[in-house]
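It would be a great kindness if you could assist me with a short task in structural biology. The matter concerns a single protein, recorded as an amino acid sequence and a row of backbone structure tokens. Could you please explain, in whatever detail you think fit, how the structure tokens follow from the sequence? Thank you for your consideration; the sequence and its tokens are set out here:
___
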Amino acid sequence: MELKIKRALISVSNKMGAVELAKKLSKAGVEIISTGGTMKAIRAAGIPVTYVSDVTGFPEIMDGRVKTLNPKIHGGILAVRDNPEHLKQMEEYDIKPIDMVVVNLYPFKSTIKKPNVTLAEAVENIDIGGPAMIRAAAKNFKFVTVVTNPDRYDEIAKMVAETGEVDYDTRKKLAAEAFAHTADYDTAIANYLNG
């Protein structure tokens, strides 16, 4: 089964290297989808990018709390590409596959390290859509590449440029890294709320 990377969703809190990654992926023929600040940075660099709201048909709402929590995003990530019923539903609901998810999370740990941080500030830095997309992509690593670590961008961009895809073993390894990333994130939140 061909697993060419045709669409990537990039939505990062830590923007380090994200624009350069988008540039390399775009040059390799990958369509880029993005959210708010990440999209603005990618667009400002002259790279073609589709706003996530143009994919979902729904605006970012509630101060950005709800932007990617939508079947057009999660269906595109979670669809089992060799399941005829999933493919039929994608067609029926006009859901396009998302082959790569590049996400890192709101800076919860650095927020709670600030002196006199309020509980309300800490709570606003609990990412919801990010972990949902990371976990969805990691769960579906058989078909989807998930990247949570900016140190991986060059290696992944090189693979896509050379072969059009990311090999299975790398996808599996990236999925494990992704689950470790969300587990660490949730542990920090649990410890803070218990503290």
